[in-house]
Design a protein that fits this description.
The chain has one helix and 21 strands. By secondary structure, the chain is mainly beta. The N terminus is likely disordered.
Length: 255
């Protein structure tokens, strides 16, 4: 199955030569653009579009019909799907997750690990420097080098889905945590002000949504202690509004 990006009517007019179909909706007209894949003709590889910037450039995971795993990180821009290469050290595959308005891409890549295993590492890709793991020499201990870089903003700040990781090109790597909640952390999204949305798995297994402000180094647990059994914060905008989910138990029902 091929993946597509959705574009509002204004962008659709600018990309008229690429239009495949037009959908009508109550909120306006939308256009589906097939961004393709990088597999040889006749294969059935697909593409997953995972992030988009204000210029319409799309981060993607696409099938290449080759390699040990058959999928790679790619960037769709100017009507072309571009192979971003692999993590240095023997790339096995990977995927792009986010792209900022400067064309910098974040994601993950796999490479051999040990005698027979493999490890996922976060990457930062630029036109000039290619694909690197910014945590190498960036102040993070080696056991934090694994994981996925989920998003990158225009300041080059990044968030990682594992270990509550946050990276700033000026201050380096940081693990986010707050009192009373330990265990497994995930940082899902960040905005242009360096505010982060994510979740933390406490020792009892409870999932707590949180909001972290990197400028003030302050964190807020968004879980309602009375109503919410679990909650998670997946996305936020530049106004600081956060989207996510919460699991709440209703009153007991008579048998």
């Amino acid at each position: 199955m091929r993946s597509s990006i959705f574009s509002l009517g204004l962008h659709a007019a600018l990309l008229a030569g690429l239009l495949a179909n037009t959908l009508s909706a109550q909120t306006g007209s939308y256009t589906i653009i097939d961004i393709g894949d990088l597999a040889p003709a006749g294969s059935h590889a697909g593409t997953n579009a995972t992030g988009i910037n204000e210029l319409g450039h799309v981060a993607a995971i696409t099938g290449d019909g080759a390699g040990p795993l058959g999928f790679i990180a790619a960037l769709y821009r100017d009507g072309q799907l571009v192979n971003l290469g692999g993590i240095p050290g023997g790339a096995l595959g990977g995927g792009a997750k986010g792209v900022n308005n400067l064309g910098v891409v974040s994601g993950w890549g796999l490479h051999p690990w040990g005698t027979s295993g493999q490890q996922s590492e976060p990457f930062l890709w630029t036109e000039e420097g290619g694909m690197i793991n910014p945590l190498h020499g960036g102040g993070a201990p080696q056991d934090d080098w694994s994981g996925e870089a989920w998003d990158v903003n225009d300041a080059g700040q990044m968030v990682f889905t594992t270990k509550g990781g946050f990276f700033d090109p000026v201050t380096g790597f940081k693990r986010i945590s707050f009192d009373g909640v330990g265990g497994f952390w995930r940082t899902w999204d960040l905005n242009e002000d360096g505010v982060i949305a994510g979740s933390a798995f406490g020792p009892s297994g409870q999932i707590n949504a949180f909001r972290y402000d990197s400028a003030t180094d302050t964190i807020a647990n968004l879980n309602d202690p009375v109503l919410d059994h679990h909650s998670d914060a997946y996305g936020l905008n530049d106004l600081g509004d956060i989207a996510g989910w919460a699991l709440q138990f209703g009153p007991s029902q008579p048998s």
